[in-house]
Structures are given as C-alpha cells and as structure tokens.
Specification:
Blueprint lengths: L4 E4 L9 H10 L5 E6 L11 H10 L5 E6 L7 H6 L4 E4 L7 H10 L3 E6 L17 E5 L14 H15 L4 E5 L7 H6 L4 E4 L1 H4 L9 H14 L4
Parallel strand pairs: 1-8, 2-3, 3-4, 4-5, 5-6, 6-7, 7-8
This protein binds D-xylitol-5-phosphate and zinc ion.
The site of zinc ion has 6 residues, from strand 2.
Length: 230
C-alpha cells in the first residue's frame, strides 16, 4: 500500500503571499502541492496558470506539484505546465477529445498523468487506459470552488476504484479532492484513498491569528490517518 500523502490545495491560500504559504504548509509536514487550474469555461471560475507554477519553482519549492487541470481544451496547455515544473498533471476526461492521447502527451512531457472523475462521471473512462495512468483523482465535490461539503457517495466510488487499482497490480495513486477535513480524513482513507487534497480544511480561517496552525492541522490529519489500518 502506498504511503499517505497530504496535498494542501493552494486555492484557499493567501495569493498575496503564495510562496510563503506554500513554504509554511510544507514545513508543517505536507507532502505535495495541489495546484488548481480553472478556466472560466470548463468550470465557472478562473485561477492560476503555468507562470504561477514556474514562480513557485523559482521561489525554491522542490516538493511535487500536483496540477489539477479544470480546463477545456486540455492538450495545448500541457507542455507549458511541464516546462513550468509540474510533477503530476491530471485532467477531466470530458474535457479532452482524445483521452488516450492526452495521457500519452503528459507522460511524453516527463510528468505523471492522472484522470479526474467528477461526482457523476462514470469510471468506465478507465477501461482501456489504466496502464497509462499514474493517478486517479476522485472529486468529492463538483469542481470550481473551494469550501464545499464532501459528497458522501464519493466513499463508495473510492472503494470501487481501490478494487480496480488493487486488481490491476499497477502503481496508481488514488487521490480525493473536495471537503476533506481533519474530521473525515480517516473514513476517506478507510475507503481506499492514499492522497488527500485539502484546501479550506488547511488554509481556512484564522490566517493572521495563529502562525503555527498549519503544523497543528497537518499533525491532526496525520494522526487521524495513522489510526486507520488497511
Ligand atoms: C475544487 C478544487 C479543490 C478545492 C478543494 O474544484 O479542485 O482542489 O481547492 O477545496 P476544499 O478542500 O476547500 O473543498
Ligand atoms: Zn483540485
């Protein structure tokens, strides 16, 4: 079983001091940086692009950067993110005309490739491409915004994907994104996830009042994960 990774979503960070925010969550024990890219077309919100990814690398961030593309079309922007220092690039299959080609494009650029499933997206997109996938990301909210509530049916879907991965014998991470908090992270792990995105759950309130709160939140998440055997 893969080691658990905690992936703060910088969508909820303070963008006016993004480098510092990323340094702080990594120093607090986070493993990878979740980087949400929205285009005001595939999802009704607009965020950040390759320039910001590159800026984090130039700032000195060496942790893996997990680029979650909520953009349509997908392919044009992939080489830009690879050049900007992305480690993982995940995309929504509905946003690509040629899912197999997009997966190959990501790996061809030297990155790890992932498919993202919205709450209503069927898992059948995995059927013929599993061996080209390094990460499966299950959305536990509808994409577009931080701070939404975890959709409970994601737990059953996680169990289904865990079985698919285990049966395949392939080395594929299972990531969950949306409404992940200290309170529910243990049951999410128990359902099969090994990579946990959390935006508002980590960067949430109290920014200026408690400078050490990231240490405490990530330690609580790690402790909750540690209590779940698999
Ligand atoms: C939503 C994004 C998430 C978001 C999660 O479309 O993909 O990564 O930042 O935020 P929380 O953890 O607040 O639900
Ligand atoms: Zn995301």
């Amino acid at each position: 079983m893969a080691v658990d990774l905690i992936a703060p979503s910088i969508l909820s960070a303070d963008f006016a001091k993004l480098g510092q925010e990323v340094d702080s969550v990594l120093a607090a024990g986070a493993d990878i940086v979740h980087f949400d890219v929205m285009d005001n077309h595939y999802v009704p919100n607009l965020t950040i692009g390759p320039l910001v990814c590159e800026a984090l690398r130039k700032h000195g961030v060496t942790a893996p950067i997990d680029v979650h593309l909520m953009v349509k079309p997908v392919d044009r922007i992939i080489p830009d993110f690879a050049a900007a220092g992305a480690t993982y690039i995940t995309f929504h299959p509905e946003a690509s005309e040629h899912v197999d080609r997009t997966l190959q494009l990501i790996r061809g650029e030297g990155c790890k490739a992932g498919l993202v499933f919205n709450p209503a997206t069927p898992l059948s997109y995995l059927d013929y491409v599993l061996e080209k996938v390094d990460m499966i990301l299950l959305m536990s909210v509808n994409p577009g915004f931080g701070g939404q509530s975890f959709i409970p049916s994601a737990l059953d879907k996680l169990r289904e994907v865990r079985e698919i991965i285990d049966d395949s014998g392939l080395d594929i991470r299972l990531e969950v994104d949306g409404g992940v908090k200290v309170d529910n992270i243990a049951e999410i792990k128990a359902a099969g996830a090994d990579t946990f995105v959390s935006g508002s759950g980590i960067f949430g309130k109290g920014k200026d009042t408690d400078p050490n709160r990231y240490d405490s939140i990530i330690a609580q998440m790690r402790a909750a994960l540690g209590r779940v055997g698999r």
